[in-house]
Each structure stands twice: as C-alpha cells, then as structure tokens.
Specification:
Helix content of chain A: 10-25%
CATH superfamily of the largest domain in chain A: P-loop containing nucleotide triphosphate hydrolases
Low-confidence stretches of chain B: none
Largest sheet of chain B: 2 strands, antiparallel
Distance between the termini of chain B: 51 Å
Oligomer: heterodimer
CATH architecture of the largest domain in chain A: 3-Layer(aba) Sandwich
Largest interface: A-B, 24 and 17 residues
CATH topology of the largest domain in chain A: Rossmann fold
Strand content of chain A: 25-35%
Low-confidence stretches of chain A: none
Strand order of the largest sheet of chain A: 6-7-8-3-9-10
Distance between the termini of chain A: 41 Å
Largest sheet of chain A: 6 strands, mixed
Helix content of chain B: over 70%
Strand order of the largest sheet of chain B: 1-2
Structural class of chain B: mainly alpha
Mean pLDDT of chain B: 89
Number of domains of chain A: 2
Structural class of chain A: alpha+beta
Strand content of chain B: under 5%
Shape of chain B: globular
Chain lengths: 358, 287
C-alpha cells in the first residue's frame, strides 16, 4: 500500500491529423492518502476515466509524473504498479469457474496452488461467493460478475490501490445499494486505498471520505461531502452537487455586500471586500425562505417530492429554486423571499471568494 | 356473437406453397423416386426398393470417394481455421490499414469458382505456370496432372487461397466485438499473451468459429467446380470427390438409380455431421 501523488499531470489524446491536441486532463496535482476512500465525481467526459487509467498505467500521461510513496512510477507498466481496477462492464473469463476467475491473477504471478486456494476461499467468503465457487462464471448475474471483477483485485495481497470505474452502472438499483455498502465494509476491513469514479453524486457522497470533483479536465474541489455541500469552491460544484443544485445569480457589490437586482443582501463577508470580474452569488435552495420583507418574486412552479416541495420562483430575469417543507404553506399573495446570510456565497469568475465567516 | 367462418385467406398461401413445391419439394421427391426404382426411359419404372441404397453403401467406389472427401474437408478445415485465426489476430484493429486489409481479404471471395480453378490450373502448370515452373526449377518434381501428391497439394492450396479469407473476416468481426475493458482487465491481472488468447479471444470467437467451421465444412464437402476445372478428378481417381463422382455416375454413366440413392446418402451425411457438430457446440454453451 502506498500514497499516490500526482505532480503537474497533463494528458492529451492523440489529435486528428492537423489539429492541435486537446487536453483531457489539465494540470493536476493531487495527493491520494494511503488507505483513503476517494470518489472522483464529475459529468461524463470530464477526464475521470483518463485520470484513473493514468494511475493504473493503462495510459502514460503526456506531461507530469506520478509518484507512489515518492517513487516515480510514470513510466512503469501496469504490472509493476500493483493496481487493481474494476471496470464499468463486468469482466469475467467466461470459460472459467468462479474459483478459477478469482485465482487467475494469482496463478499468473506464479503463486503456489495451496496459497491460491487459501486466498480465493478467504476472498470468496468476504464477497459472499463461497457457495458459487464451482460454477461457471458466465452463468452469474451482472452483480455477481461485478463481484468477481472486484474479487480479482482483492485476492492480490500486493495491491497499492483499487480503482473503480463506474462499477455499478449495469447493476439493478436494489442491488446497487447492497454492493456499495459491501465496498464500504471491505474498505474498512482491509484498509486499501480505493478510488471510485462516478457521475452519480449519491454514490460518491455515500462511498467516499473525500470527494474529488472534476470539471472540464481539472479538479475543482476536494472535500468531505459536507464541505462540498456547504462551501462549494466553484459554481460547478454548487450546481452539480445537491438536488436541485445551487442557485447562481448575477450580482454586484455595494460596500462589500452583494446586491442582487437592486436588493442589498446581507452576508457574512467583510465590508471591505473589493472584487472585479464576473460576480455572482450562490445560495442553495435549502437556504432560501419565504419572508415578509424580502425580494418580491413570482411563483412559477411547485413540484411536490413527498418530504418537501421544490418551488421555482422568478425575480426579474433570474430563476430561483427553493426547498420548502411539506407542511409549510406557500404564500399566494405577494410572495417574497430572503436568503440565509450565513450560507450566502460570493463567486468571482466562478470561483468562491474566501471570507472569514462568523 | 357468432364468428363468421371464412377460409378464403388460405388461398393467399398458394404462391408460397407453389414456390416451395417447385423449388425444393418436387425436385427432392424426383430424386427419391429415382432412388427407389429402375427406369430404361420412356417413363417406364420398375420398383427396386432399397437395392440402390444397398449397392451404393456396399460399393468400394463410394467408400473411396467418401474417404477422399472426408480427408480433403478435414485438411482444409485443419489449415484454414488456425490460419484464419492467426491472420485475423495480426490484422490492425484501427487506423487507415483496416480498410486496405479488409479489401485485400475480401478479394478472393469475389472470384467465381471456375475462374479460381482456371487460374490455379494455369498457375500450377508444370512447364509454363509460375508455381509449377518455379517448383520444378528449384528441383522439386512437381506435376499435378500426373502425381497424386502434387494434385492434392494444389487442390488443398487452392481451397486455402480461396476460402481462408472467409474465416479471417468472421474471426476479425468476433475479435472487434471484444470490449477494451477485457484486455485492460487481463493486463491488470497479469495475463500472458497466450492467456489472453486462450481465455478471452478464443471464447469470444467461439460463436463465429462455429459458423466458420460449419460453412467451410458444408462448402468443401460439396466442392465440385474448382477441382473439376483444375484436375478433373485426376490423376486417375485421386481427386475425385463425392460430387465429382456423383456427376460421373449420374451424367457420365447415366445410372440414375444409384446416383439418386447416392445423392440422398450424401445429403444425409452432410445433414448429420452439421447437426452433431452444432448440437455439441451449443450444448457446451448452455452449461
């Protein structure tokens, strides 16, 4: 096991002839602590899989280097990096039994057969596959197959990290939850670094201690689920995490305080803030309330989601979403809203403005 | 409510029934008819029962050509299938060379049988043919019109040249359908190239290989035109395969009864082998 470090890694896939290369990864420096459970979260095409393949050595980055415990492994082949990887679609060797599938990586490395049997039995026990060891792997359901893919990573004692590339995409919803808690449990049991790629925020937030949010080839924020929710560093994190996402509204500044459509708002920012660039405020729908003396709005839509209601309101040309409890009443006459000052964030050119909050 | 019964719709099936009847059923029944009777022309028939079948099954001539046929088919399958797999494995998976390779591979398949026979005949002529002349000037004693070994070698080579492409194209399609993740996973599991072939590529090619073997079996088992043009079944009878022999009996000797009986046996042999092969392959799949 080891700590994985990215130092100024950039990667571009070979461009079509005559075109400039487009970077799939833009300058990433990041440390993955030994034994951590990380989730890489981002929309399709943001470079998550590229990053994963660079860690496992299936891809060599165009620039920069990767260190495992301060040892440069950038040019090392996959085999010598001791990485296990689970792919989106379950990969099993159809003609082999479940046992042989799990034993395959060990036998390829020339482990004595008695040790192989011991390891495989142990891992099968962990994954609840013990009673299927003699079956042909091709006959299993997709969650069973995905467990085998995972098991082939776990049997090896020398793995530095296990990488998951959207492993639950093809699994039935009711089994997803089971398999995810199994992963979490395994992580606590064996303590190996796990990096989990997904575009599903619920998956990321429930699996990981630290979530790495990627956007357009770069890492925009690394943090615990709570940090990502309450202090998104980038407007993208704001609206990618949370359902519905954060409201991002144009604003200007007056005496350090944000002004949204001629309404001076109070915030936790110091009065001397002086910023230039594209200014916006970010406020999560959870922190928008109906009030008596706020911003006048027009109600556009009310969606009842059971435990709460999502209300879409409009002020001037801006749409604002708000979460209202199931038992709260929605004012029918002259509705006005206000923003919770403690949870109001200011963004300058899409990046959060750091401020000393009370 | 009473349903009105209207059976007129059955008439709509008449064209199809006629087509099938004239296409398959009546010709087949004619053969059955000939196989059970003796005729001396003028549509006069004498009942013979299973005599023709018995005599064909007992005849040494039939045994010999069946054996030659089995040997020929066995040889070309034993060469074409592994060769096809090797060629398919070494073809590029992406890039500009893909289409070049595919077109080159498809070329032999587009050439008519008798042209292939004629081409190889000229190519192999011992005195002026490129192959024949080269072999002879290198010191080999090669003459496909006189030596059985040379004739066999040339016939097998011709079939390999003509049909390996089919196996290549089928295998290539099978290989292309394997997702990258399999190779990546195998790489991470530390699999050797042989293990990748044995546990990923070969199992994934199983279905197309089954089809390839079936097609090559049926086609080569019924081969007629190419060896007929190349060797005419000779020297002697050494390259007289089943269908050449059948034509000799039916049209050369005009023994319609034995020829009909032989056709039916021939047909049943092809059917039986295909059925057994397919069932065995598919049963394995279900396990």
């Amino acid at each position: 096991m080891s700590r994985i470090e990215f130092s100024d890694v950039r990667h571009a896939y070979p461009p079509p002839p005559g075109q400039a290369p487009v970077y799939a990864l833009k300058e990433i420096s990041q440390v993955w602590d030994d034994g951590g459970a990380y989730a890489l979260l981002g929309p399709s095409g943001c470079g998550k899989t590229t990053l994963l393949n660079i860690i496992s050595g299936l891809l060599t980055p165009s620039e920069g280097s990767i260190l495992f415990d301060d040892r440069d492994v950038t040019r090392l082949p996959t085999l010598e990096r001791h990485i296990a990887q689970v792919f989106q679609f379950p990969v099993v060797y159809d003609t082999m039994t479940v046992f042989d599938n799990l034993a395959f990586p060990l036998r390829n490395r020339g482990m004595p057969e008695t040790r192989v049997t011991q390891r495989v039995t142990e891992i099968a026990e962990m994954l609840d596959l013990s009673d299927r060891l003699g079956q042909r792997a091709s006959g299993l359901t997709s969650d069973g197959k995905q467990k085998i893919s995972l098991g082939r990573g776990l049997v090896r004692e020398d793995v530095n990290a296990i990488l998951f590339d959207e492993p639950l995409t093809v699994i039935d919803p009711h089994l997803k939850w089971q398999l995810r808690s199994k992963l979490k449990e395994l992580h606590q049991q064996i303590g190996v670094t796990m990096i989990y790629v997904t575009h599903d925020q619920v998956e990321a937030l429930t699996f990981a201690d630290k979530v790495v949010v990627m956007h357009d080839g770069g890492i925009v924020q690394v943090g615990t689920p709570i940090e990502l929710f309450s202090r998104p560093r980038h407007t993208f994190v704001g609206y990618f995490i949370g359902s519905p996402g954060m409201n991002v509204l144009p604003c200007s500044l007056d005496g350090g305080q944000p002004v949204f459509a001629n309404n001076l708002l109070s915030s936790g920012y110091p009065a001397d803030a002086d910023l230039s660039g594209k200014l916006e405020i970010g406020i999560r729908p959870e922190f928008v309330r109906f009030s008596d003396d706020g911003i006048p709005v027009e109600i556009q839509k009310v969606e009842d989601l059971g435990r709460y209601q999502v209300v879409t309101v409009r002020h001037a040309s801006s749409q604002i979403k708000m979460l209202v409890g199931e038992d709260e009443t929605i004012p029918s006459h002259n509705p006005q809203i206000s923003f919770d000052p403690d949870n109001l964030l200011i963004y300058c050119d899409d990046w959060a403005v750091e401020a000393e909050h009370a | 409510m009473r349903k009105t019964t209207n059976q007129k719709a059955w008439w709509l099936l008449v064209p199809v029934l006629l087509l099938v009847a004239f296409n398959a059923f009546i010709p087949l029944m004619t053969v059955v008819n000939y196989s059970l009777q003796e005729t001396f022309g003028n549509n006069v028939f004498f009942w013979e029962g299973l005599t023709w079948f018995e005599s064909v099954l007992r005849s040494e001539r039939f045994h010999d050509s069946l054996l030659r046929q089995l040997m020929f088919t066995g040889m070309i399958i034993a060469i074409e299938i592994p060769l096809g797999i090797v060629v398919a494995l070494s073809m590029p998976r992406k890039g500009p060379w893909v289409s070049v390779c595919l077109v080159l591979m498809a070329l032999p398949l587009l050439i008519p049988w008798n042209v292939v026979g004629a081409m190889w005949n000229i190519f192999a002529l011992p005195d002026i043919g490129l192959l024949g002349h080269t072999l002879n000037s290198m010191g080999f004693d090669y003459n496909f019109t006189r030596q059985p070994v040379s004739a066999w070698m040339t016939t097998v080579l011709m079939d390999v040249w003509h049909w390996t492409s089919l196996v290549v194209l089928l295998c290539y399609a099978g290989l292309c359908s394997i997702p990258d993740a399999y190779y990546q996973a195998a790489h991470i599991d530390g699999a050797s190239p042989w293990a990748v072939f044995r546990y990923i590529q070969l199992p994934k090619m199983k279905r197309v290989l089954t089809i390839a073997i079936l097609l090559r079996f049926m086609d080569s088992f019924m081969i007629y035109t190419e060896p007929f043009v190349l060797t005419g079944g000779g020297p002697g009878n050494t390259t007289t395969f089943l269908s050449i022999d059948l034509v000799k009996i039916a049209l050369g000797q005009f023994d319609l009864g034995p020829a009909a009986a032989m056709s039916l046996i021939y047909f049943l042999v092809v059917l039986l082998i295909c059925w057994v092969f397919y069932t065995v392959m598919m049963r394995d799949e279900e396990e």
